[in-house]
Specification:
By secondary structure, this protein is mainly alpha-helical. Helices cover 72% and strands 0% of the residues. The longest helix is centred in the middle third of the chain and has 20 residues. It is globular. The chain starts with 10 loop residues before the first helix and ends with a helix.
Length: 106
């Protein structure tokens, strides 16, 4: 009986997964700041609005800073891949909500 070979995840997925892990390890203050900016996005502000654009940029900057500090991002190419990940902010939002829910249950 043969087992199906497991295909490796594309580098983009692996990088995103490693960034999410780095955010989990980040200091609580970084998570709070990141959550603040992501909450602005959840308020349904018009994407063309300055506040929305600033929140997106601030959240991405915090994510990139954490990834670089945790040495997940080591090359300009990795940074470009991270910047082009359309699901990144949503994935980080879900992660932070899960962490918050888990902490409230403890």
């Amino acid at each position: 009986m043969t087992t199906p070979s497991r295909l490796p995840a594309p580098p983009e997925q692996a990088l995103t997964r490693n960034v999410l892990r780095a955010i989990l390890r980040a200091p609580q203050l970084n998570k709070i700041q990141l959550q603040f900016h992501l909450d602005v996005l959840l308020e349904g502000i018009d994407p063309q609005c300055v506040e929305h654009q600033q929140a997106v940029q601030s959240a991405r900057t915090i994510i990139q800073t954490i990834a670089i500090q945790e040495q997940v991002i080591r090359t300009p190419e990795q940074l470009r891949v991270l910047e082009s990940e359309p699901r990144l902010l949503g994935l980080v939002q879900e992660l932070l909500l899960e962490v918050k829910d888990t902490a409230s249950l403890a």
